[in-house]
Amino acid sequence: MKYLYTAAALLAATASADLCTHGSTDDDGNYYCQKVEAITYAGVGGEGTYNKVTSMADGACTSSPFGYNGSLSPLDEELSLHFRGPLQLKQFAFYAPCTAASSYSKEKRNVGRRSAMERRHAHGHGHAHAHLHHAREAHAEEKRAPALGDMVTAVINGVSETWKNTYGGNAGAADDAESSSAPSYGAGTTASTGSSGAAAPASYGGSSSSTTSSTTSESTTSSSSNDDGDDSSSSGTGWTRQGYYNAESGTSSGIVFLNHEGGSGSGVFDYSFGNSLSYASANGQSGASAPTTLENCEIPSGTEVVIMTDDKCGTDDSSCGYYRDGTVAYHGFDGASKAFFFEFSMPDDGTTAASKYDPTNMPAIWLLNAQIPRTLQYGNAECSCWTTGCGEFDIFEVLAPGDARCKSTLHGNIAGGDSDYFARPTSDTIKAALLLYKDNIHIKILPDSTDFGTTMGDSFFSEIVADTMEDSVEKLVSLFTLSGSS
Question: Where is the composition biased (Low complexity) (predicted)?
Fold first, then answer.
């Protein structure tokens, strides 16, 4: 996400009001309305294009347009999970519908059938996300050309075609697009510059998009066959845990811990692109030479840890697309229906920032299109698909040092941020669920007794959906309907 999103920019397209009619506060351009325990983003998917990175050489990158279409697109593609301190992650779990989980395992056995040449020139992974989460780079304001849609992965019965190495699409002439230049900061932050004309609170729904000029005029489109009624939730087969981490027991399965310390133990560093991804050390603060489970520790302020699946991108694995030479490349969390569960705290370490671009004492949890960290999460904007809308969602993000509120924001060609917020868990841990299902994203604080077991019944997820689809001050639920929804 771009760090310099202004309130006015986010109001480019409207969305239904959240709970701001009941009161709001403007803190340096960031609006806070009501404290809630659940937020739903409705109408998050759509049709559109973004630019996939196809090469990285001599400090420059090239890309080509890629079309997507589906109810959750482009977030039905592979996603990476990012955690910025101060934060202590006690548990993490990833669930997929049973039918999708079965197909997912089968695909993991079948990847790697194409040549290395095809892999290196397949659709790429880039990101120039100018978010507070990664405020390492310059802080120029992003220019985004209005547009609709971005989608790149076909999903059949809950399984991404990208994962299946079956990028289905028609090649066609791509419209000339405006070049977009944006800083690459960190994971999602909807910080505002506080510029004049700051909009009133209320739904910052948007369908703004930016498309970077490409050296090719050919566009590949992938259509997601995501029939709302055609998934395991409707067939009653339940959801299966595909990845898990428990800090107390020091165990993990199905996932890998990474960070941005390439050149230290693993990954690479150069003066053109900086640090690539690397394996994270046990405390998450440095690189490691091999996969290492995160220990039971507090991730320090400003430090970022990335979680992906433990399925490594193979030499002949076209489903990973293009990624930076020498990086530590793993598959992200794929599928048109998926759920993430967290147990965590965000302690206040008392530190303050030297500048508003320094994410000190500003913890966050967010997800990115996994192409972004596999090419360049921080740095040259043309080396990432972020600026052209491949997708980011900020789940819990603190926007000012020491602030006790966590905001959420969707970044992409359909974009917006709910002004209601969650309380930052500074002392005790909380449990929370993130459900991406059909055309919606649901965030819900869970009871402390919730067990992240090996399976979850359909009724559990049905209740999350039912409990979070209507604004309610009494029930502490905020519904944010984006302009992309019908």
Answer: 179-238
